[in-house]
Design brief:
The protein is an alpha/beta fold and 375 residues long. The protein is built from 13 helices and twelve strands.
Length: 375
Protein backbone atom coordinates (compact mmCIF):
# COMPACT_ATOMS: atom_id res chain seq x y z
CA UNK A 1 0.00 0.00 0.00
CA UNK A 2 1.36 3.41 -0.86
CA UNK A 3 2.00 6.09 1.74
CA UNK A 4 -0.73 8.34 0.33
CA UNK A 5 -3.24 5.51 0.65
CA UNK A 6 -2.20 4.99 4.29
CA UNK A 7 -2.96 8.65 5.05
CA UNK A 8 -6.26 8.53 3.21
CA UNK A 9 -7.38 5.56 5.33
CA UNK A 10 -6.18 7.09 8.61
CA UNK A 11 -4.97 4.84 11.43
CA UNK A 12 -7.52 2.09 10.84
CA UNK A 13 -8.10 -0.16 7.90
CA UNK A 14 -11.37 0.36 6.11
CA UNK A 15 -12.96 2.62 3.54
CA UNK A 16 -11.40 6.03 2.85
CA UNK A 17 -12.27 8.87 5.19
CA UNK A 18 -14.69 11.43 3.81
CA UNK A 19 -15.70 14.98 4.50
CA UNK A 20 -18.70 13.56 6.38
CA UNK A 21 -16.35 11.73 8.78
CA UNK A 22 -14.54 14.99 9.47
CA UNK A 23 -17.83 16.76 10.21
CA UNK A 24 -18.96 14.01 12.62
CA UNK A 25 -15.61 13.88 14.43
CA UNK A 26 -15.40 17.66 14.76
CA UNK A 27 -19.03 17.92 15.84
CA UNK A 28 -19.78 20.54 13.18
CA UNK A 29 -21.80 20.66 9.98
CA UNK A 30 -20.45 19.69 6.60
CA UNK A 31 -20.91 23.34 5.62
CA UNK A 32 -18.48 24.33 8.38
CA UNK A 33 -15.96 21.76 7.15
CA UNK A 34 -16.45 23.20 3.67
CA UNK A 35 -15.71 26.73 4.88
CA UNK A 36 -12.49 25.60 6.54
CA UNK A 37 -11.25 23.45 3.66
CA UNK A 38 -12.12 25.66 0.70
CA UNK A 39 -10.97 28.91 2.28
CA UNK A 40 -13.77 30.86 0.59
CA UNK A 41 -15.15 32.36 3.80
CA UNK A 42 -14.06 33.04 7.37
CA UNK A 43 -15.32 30.47 9.89
CA UNK A 44 -14.95 31.10 13.60
CA UNK A 45 -11.53 30.29 15.03
CA UNK A 46 -13.00 27.63 17.34
CA UNK A 47 -14.67 25.93 14.37
CA UNK A 48 -11.47 26.04 12.32
CA UNK A 49 -9.49 24.46 15.19
CA UNK A 50 -12.07 21.68 15.68
CA UNK A 51 -12.06 20.85 11.98
CA UNK A 52 -8.29 20.81 11.71
CA UNK A 53 -7.99 18.60 14.81
CA UNK A 54 -10.44 16.16 13.21
CA UNK A 55 -8.51 16.22 9.93
CA UNK A 56 -5.29 15.41 11.80
CA UNK A 57 -6.91 12.75 13.98
CA UNK A 58 -8.44 10.97 10.99
CA UNK A 59 -5.44 11.43 8.75
CA UNK A 60 -7.87 12.91 6.23
CA UNK A 61 -6.52 13.89 2.83
CA UNK A 62 -9.28 15.36 0.59
CA UNK A 63 -9.54 13.45 -2.65
CA UNK A 64 -11.03 14.88 -5.82
CA UNK A 65 -14.58 13.99 -4.85
CA UNK A 66 -14.26 15.55 -1.40
CA UNK A 67 -12.78 18.74 -2.86
CA UNK A 68 -15.59 18.87 -5.39
CA UNK A 69 -18.20 18.39 -2.66
CA UNK A 70 -16.58 21.09 -0.57
CA UNK A 71 -16.46 23.57 -3.42
CA UNK A 72 -20.01 22.80 -4.56
CA UNK A 73 -21.61 23.89 -1.28
CA UNK A 74 -23.12 27.29 -1.88
CA UNK A 75 -24.40 27.82 1.67
CA UNK A 76 -27.67 29.03 0.15
CA UNK A 77 -31.18 27.65 0.64
CA UNK A 78 -34.08 28.57 -1.64
CA UNK A 79 -37.47 29.33 -0.06
CA UNK A 80 -40.59 29.54 -2.23
CA UNK A 81 -44.04 30.61 -1.02
CA UNK A 82 -47.40 31.30 -2.65
CA UNK A 83 -48.95 34.76 -2.91
CA UNK A 84 -52.50 35.83 -3.67
CA UNK A 85 -53.38 38.41 -6.29
CA UNK A 86 -55.78 40.74 -4.46
CA UNK A 87 -58.73 42.45 -6.10
CA UNK A 88 -57.73 45.87 -4.85
CA UNK A 89 -60.29 47.80 -6.86
CA UNK A 90 -63.19 46.05 -5.09
CA UNK A 91 -61.60 46.02 -1.63
CA UNK A 92 -59.91 49.41 -1.11
CA UNK A 93 -60.03 48.99 2.68
CA UNK A 94 -57.50 46.15 2.30
CA UNK A 95 -55.36 47.74 -0.39
CA UNK A 96 -52.14 47.31 1.60
CA UNK A 97 -52.76 43.67 2.50
CA UNK A 98 -50.68 42.34 -0.39
CA UNK A 99 -47.62 43.50 1.57
CA UNK A 100 -48.82 42.01 4.86
CA UNK A 101 -48.57 38.22 4.62
CA UNK A 102 -48.32 37.85 8.38
CA UNK A 103 -48.13 34.07 8.67
CA UNK A 104 -45.71 33.73 5.76
CA UNK A 105 -43.51 36.54 7.08
CA UNK A 106 -43.19 34.95 10.53
CA UNK A 107 -42.56 31.54 9.02
CA UNK A 108 -39.81 32.91 6.78
CA UNK A 109 -38.31 34.75 9.73
CA UNK A 110 -37.95 31.45 11.54
CA UNK A 111 -36.17 29.99 8.51
CA UNK A 112 -33.93 33.04 8.21
CA UNK A 113 -32.75 33.06 11.83
CA UNK A 114 -31.97 29.33 11.78
CA UNK A 115 -30.10 29.74 8.48
CA UNK A 116 -28.03 32.63 9.80
CA UNK A 117 -26.99 30.52 12.78
CA UNK A 118 -25.40 28.07 10.33
CA UNK A 119 -23.88 30.69 8.03
CA UNK A 120 -26.43 30.13 5.26
CA UNK A 121 -28.25 32.73 3.17
CA UNK A 122 -31.80 32.55 1.81
CA UNK A 123 -32.87 32.86 -1.80
CA UNK A 124 -36.49 33.96 -1.34
CA UNK A 125 -39.06 33.81 -4.13
CA UNK A 126 -42.81 33.49 -4.65
CA UNK A 127 -45.30 32.07 -7.12
CA UNK A 128 -48.92 32.99 -7.65
CA UNK A 129 -51.50 30.77 -5.97
CA UNK A 130 -52.97 29.64 -9.26
CA UNK A 131 -49.66 29.20 -11.07
CA UNK A 132 -50.00 25.59 -12.16
CA UNK A 133 -46.54 24.98 -13.61
CA UNK A 134 -43.90 26.76 -11.52
CA UNK A 135 -41.45 23.88 -11.93
CA UNK A 136 -39.20 25.73 -14.39
CA UNK A 137 -38.78 28.69 -12.07
CA UNK A 138 -38.14 26.46 -9.06
CA UNK A 139 -35.65 24.40 -11.04
CA UNK A 140 -33.61 27.54 -11.69
CA UNK A 141 -33.67 28.41 -8.00
CA UNK A 142 -32.59 24.87 -7.15
CA UNK A 143 -29.54 25.29 -9.36
CA UNK A 144 -28.40 28.17 -7.17
CA UNK A 145 -29.03 26.42 -3.85
CA UNK A 146 -27.97 23.50 -1.65
CA UNK A 147 -31.59 22.69 -0.77
CA UNK A 148 -35.14 23.99 -1.13
CA UNK A 149 -37.98 24.78 1.30
CA UNK A 150 -41.42 24.92 -0.31
CA UNK A 151 -44.45 26.45 1.39
CA UNK A 152 -48.06 25.28 1.15
CA UNK A 153 -48.54 23.24 -2.08
CA UNK A 154 -46.09 25.20 -4.26
CA UNK A 155 -45.58 21.93 -6.14
CA UNK A 156 -47.77 18.84 -6.25
CA UNK A 157 -46.32 15.65 -4.70
CA UNK A 158 -44.95 14.29 -7.98
CA UNK A 159 -43.22 17.62 -8.64
CA UNK A 160 -41.71 17.55 -5.17
CA UNK A 161 -40.35 14.04 -5.76
CA UNK A 162 -38.76 15.09 -9.06
CA UNK A 163 -37.13 18.08 -7.39
CA UNK A 164 -35.95 15.96 -4.45
CA UNK A 165 -34.09 13.70 -6.86
CA UNK A 166 -31.76 16.65 -7.50
CA UNK A 167 -31.27 18.08 -4.00
CA UNK A 168 -32.79 17.95 -0.47
CA UNK A 169 -36.35 19.28 -0.17
CA UNK A 170 -38.45 20.17 2.88
CA UNK A 171 -42.07 21.27 2.56
CA UNK A 172 -44.21 23.27 4.98
CA UNK A 173 -47.95 22.68 5.34
CA UNK A 174 -47.92 20.34 2.38
CA UNK A 175 -47.92 16.57 1.84
CA UNK A 176 -45.04 14.21 2.75
CA UNK A 177 -43.47 12.15 -0.02
CA UNK A 178 -40.98 9.30 -0.14
CA UNK A 179 -38.24 11.78 -1.10
CA UNK A 180 -39.01 14.86 1.02
CA UNK A 181 -39.88 15.84 4.59
CA UNK A 182 -43.05 17.76 5.46
CA UNK A 183 -43.38 19.86 8.62
CA UNK A 184 -46.79 20.95 9.85
CA UNK A 185 -48.80 21.99 12.89
CA UNK A 186 -51.41 19.58 14.24
CA UNK A 187 -54.29 21.03 12.23
CA UNK A 188 -56.72 18.20 12.89
CA UNK A 189 -56.35 18.19 16.68
CA UNK A 190 -56.47 21.98 16.91
CA UNK A 191 -59.65 22.24 14.86
CA UNK A 192 -61.28 19.32 16.70
CA UNK A 193 -60.73 20.98 20.07
CA UNK A 194 -61.96 24.33 18.78
CA UNK A 195 -65.10 22.77 17.24
CA UNK A 196 -65.93 20.89 20.45
CA UNK A 197 -65.64 24.17 22.33
CA UNK A 198 -68.00 26.00 19.96
CA UNK A 199 -70.59 23.24 19.64
CA UNK A 200 -70.28 21.60 23.05
CA UNK A 201 -69.38 24.39 25.46
CA UNK A 202 -71.24 27.25 23.74
CA UNK A 203 -73.94 25.10 22.17
CA UNK A 204 -74.05 26.75 18.73
CA UNK A 205 -76.46 24.90 16.45
CA UNK A 206 -75.09 26.00 13.08
CA UNK A 207 -71.51 26.58 11.97
CA UNK A 208 -69.64 27.73 8.88
CA UNK A 209 -66.13 27.12 7.60
CA UNK A 210 -64.59 30.01 5.68
CA UNK A 211 -61.75 28.28 3.87
CA UNK A 212 -58.31 29.14 2.58
CA UNK A 213 -56.87 28.02 -0.77
CA UNK A 214 -58.94 25.11 -2.05
CA UNK A 215 -55.88 22.90 -2.67
CA UNK A 216 -54.08 23.73 0.59
CA UNK A 217 -53.48 20.56 2.68
CA UNK A 218 -53.78 22.59 5.92
CA UNK A 219 -57.09 24.00 4.77
CA UNK A 220 -58.48 20.62 3.76
CA UNK A 221 -57.43 19.01 7.05
CA UNK A 222 -59.05 21.75 9.11
CA UNK A 223 -62.33 21.55 7.21
CA UNK A 224 -62.42 17.76 7.47
CA UNK A 225 -61.89 17.90 11.25
CA UNK A 226 -64.61 20.53 11.67
CA UNK A 227 -67.10 18.50 9.63
CA UNK A 228 -66.36 15.38 11.68
CA UNK A 229 -67.04 17.12 15.00
CA UNK A 230 -70.15 18.85 13.62
CA UNK A 231 -71.49 15.46 12.56
CA UNK A 232 -71.07 14.21 16.15
CA UNK A 233 -73.35 17.03 17.34
CA UNK A 234 -75.75 16.79 14.41
CA UNK A 235 -74.95 20.39 13.43
CA UNK A 236 -75.02 21.51 9.76
CA UNK A 237 -71.86 23.00 8.25
CA UNK A 238 -71.93 25.85 5.74
CA UNK A 239 -68.89 25.50 3.46
CA UNK A 240 -67.90 25.04 -0.16
CA UNK A 241 -67.01 27.31 -3.12
CA UNK A 242 -69.07 30.26 -1.85
CA UNK A 243 -67.11 30.11 1.41
CA UNK A 244 -63.58 30.37 -0.02
CA UNK A 245 -61.60 33.24 1.48
CA UNK A 246 -58.06 32.71 0.13
CA UNK A 247 -56.41 33.06 3.57
CA UNK A 248 -56.81 36.87 3.38
CA UNK A 249 -58.81 39.53 5.20
CA UNK A 250 -60.02 40.82 1.84
CA UNK A 251 -61.18 37.33 0.91
CA UNK A 252 -63.00 36.83 4.22
CA UNK A 253 -64.78 40.17 3.94
CA UNK A 254 -65.71 39.47 0.34
CA UNK A 255 -67.35 36.15 1.23
CA UNK A 256 -69.47 37.69 3.99
CA UNK A 257 -70.43 40.65 1.79
CA UNK A 258 -71.67 38.38 -0.98
CA UNK A 259 -73.55 36.05 1.36
CA UNK A 260 -75.37 38.94 3.03
CA UNK A 261 -76.08 40.54 -0.34
CA UNK A 262 -77.62 37.26 -1.53
CA UNK A 263 -79.80 37.06 1.56
CA UNK A 264 -78.08 33.98 3.00
CA UNK A 265 -78.79 33.29 6.68
CA UNK A 266 -75.40 33.25 8.39
CA UNK A 267 -74.58 30.44 10.85
CA UNK A 268 -74.25 31.16 14.55
CA UNK A 269 -70.49 30.55 14.45
CA UNK A 270 -67.92 30.91 11.66
CA UNK A 271 -64.57 29.13 11.82
CA UNK A 272 -62.01 30.77 9.56
CA UNK A 273 -59.05 29.02 7.98
CA UNK A 274 -56.65 31.59 9.44
CA UNK A 275 -56.58 34.75 11.53
CA UNK A 276 -56.35 37.19 8.63
CA UNK A 277 -59.53 35.75 7.13
CA UNK A 278 -61.25 36.08 10.52
CA UNK A 279 -60.26 39.74 10.80
CA UNK A 280 -61.87 40.40 7.43
CA UNK A 281 -65.01 38.57 8.53
CA UNK A 282 -65.28 40.62 11.75
CA UNK A 283 -64.79 43.82 9.76
CA UNK A 284 -67.54 43.00 7.29
CA UNK A 285 -70.01 41.80 9.94
CA UNK A 286 -69.61 45.08 11.80
CA UNK A 287 -70.02 46.99 8.53
CA UNK A 288 -73.46 45.37 8.23
CA UNK A 289 -74.42 46.13 11.84
CA UNK A 290 -73.83 42.63 13.21
CA UNK A 291 -72.08 42.14 16.54
CA UNK A 292 -69.31 39.61 17.28
CA UNK A 293 -69.94 37.34 19.14
CA UNK A 294 -73.54 38.34 20.02
CA UNK A 295 -74.91 37.82 16.51
CA UNK A 296 -72.15 35.64 15.01
CA UNK A 297 -69.17 34.06 16.78
CA UNK A 298 -65.91 34.13 14.80
CA UNK A 299 -62.67 32.17 15.26
CA UNK A 300 -59.34 32.04 13.47
CA UNK A 301 -56.28 29.82 13.20
CA UNK A 302 -52.54 30.60 13.74
CA UNK A 303 -52.60 33.23 16.54
CA UNK A 304 -50.68 35.95 14.73
CA UNK A 305 -49.76 38.86 16.99
CA UNK A 306 -52.68 41.11 16.05
CA UNK A 307 -55.25 38.45 17.01
CA UNK A 308 -54.97 39.26 20.72
CA UNK A 309 -55.14 43.04 20.25
CA UNK A 310 -58.29 43.46 18.14
CA UNK A 311 -61.73 43.93 19.68
CA UNK A 312 -63.16 41.49 20.39
CA UNK A 313 -59.93 39.56 20.91
CA UNK A 314 -59.84 36.61 18.54
CA UNK A 315 -60.32 33.03 19.67
CA UNK A 316 -57.91 30.99 17.59
CA UNK A 317 -55.56 28.01 17.39
CA UNK A 318 -51.98 28.94 18.16
CA UNK A 319 -49.32 27.42 15.93
CA UNK A 320 -45.59 27.68 16.75
CA UNK A 321 -45.12 29.57 13.48
CA UNK A 322 -41.51 30.68 13.85
CA UNK A 323 -40.52 27.26 15.19
CA UNK A 324 -42.08 25.61 12.13
CA UNK A 325 -39.79 27.69 9.93
CA UNK A 326 -36.71 27.09 12.07
CA UNK A 327 -37.31 23.33 12.13
CA UNK A 328 -37.74 23.33 8.35
CA UNK A 329 -34.26 24.78 7.92
CA UNK A 330 -32.70 22.57 10.61
CA UNK A 331 -34.14 19.47 8.94
CA UNK A 332 -32.99 20.61 5.50
CA UNK A 333 -29.54 21.43 6.85
CA UNK A 334 -29.21 17.90 8.23
CA UNK A 335 -30.22 16.49 4.85
CA UNK A 336 -27.67 18.70 3.06
CA UNK A 337 -25.09 17.25 5.43
CA UNK A 338 -26.00 13.73 4.35
CA UNK A 339 -28.33 12.73 7.20
CA UNK A 340 -31.24 10.43 6.38
CA UNK A 341 -34.53 11.76 7.79
CA UNK A 342 -35.93 9.65 10.61
CA UNK A 343 -39.47 10.51 9.55
CA UNK A 344 -41.12 12.07 6.52
CA UNK A 345 -43.91 13.89 8.40
CA UNK A 346 -43.13 16.02 11.45
CA UNK A 347 -46.19 17.33 13.33
CA UNK A 348 -45.81 20.05 15.97
CA UNK A 349 -48.44 20.53 18.69
CA UNK A 350 -50.86 23.47 18.66
CA UNK A 351 -52.92 25.17 21.37
CA UNK A 352 -56.46 26.55 21.29
CA UNK A 353 -56.58 30.06 22.76
CA UNK A 354 -60.01 31.10 24.06
CA UNK A 355 -60.79 34.80 23.83
CA UNK A 356 -63.91 36.95 23.39
CA UNK A 357 -64.80 36.44 19.72
CA UNK A 358 -66.23 32.96 20.32
CA UNK A 359 -68.48 34.08 23.19
CA UNK A 360 -66.13 33.50 26.10
CA UNK A 361 -66.24 36.27 28.68
CA UNK A 362 -63.06 38.36 28.58
CA UNK A 363 -60.78 37.80 31.53
CA UNK A 364 -59.40 40.70 33.56
CA UNK A 365 -55.90 41.59 32.47
CA UNK A 366 -53.64 41.74 35.56
CA UNK A 367 -50.05 42.56 34.71
CA UNK A 368 -48.90 39.06 35.63
CA UNK A 369 -51.12 37.27 33.11
CA UNK A 370 -51.48 37.45 29.34
CA UNK A 371 -54.96 37.64 27.82
CA UNK A 372 -54.48 34.35 26.00
CA UNK A 373 -54.23 32.25 29.19
CA UNK A 374 -55.98 28.94 28.61
CA UNK A 375 -59.36 28.44 30.30
Amino acid sequence: MQEGDEAQRGHKSGPPMTIYDVARTAGVSIASVSRVLNGHSSPRQETRERVMRAVEELGFVPDGAARALSSRLKEVVAVVFRRTRFELSTDPEFEDEADSLVFVDVLNRGIEVAAQNQGFDLLLSSVEVNEHAPGGKISKLAGKSDGVILHDRVLNPSGVVRLAERLPVVTLASTPTRASVNIVGDNAEGMRELAHHLLGTHGYRSIGYLSGHSDSPDNLTREKALRAVAAEYGVPVSAGPRWTGEYSAAGGARVIRRLISDGVQLPQAICCANDQTALGVVYELRHHGLKVPDDVAVTGFDDVSIARHVSPALTTVRQPIERLGALAFETLHDMINGARPAERQIVLPVQVVYRSSCGCRPEPAPSSRRDETMR
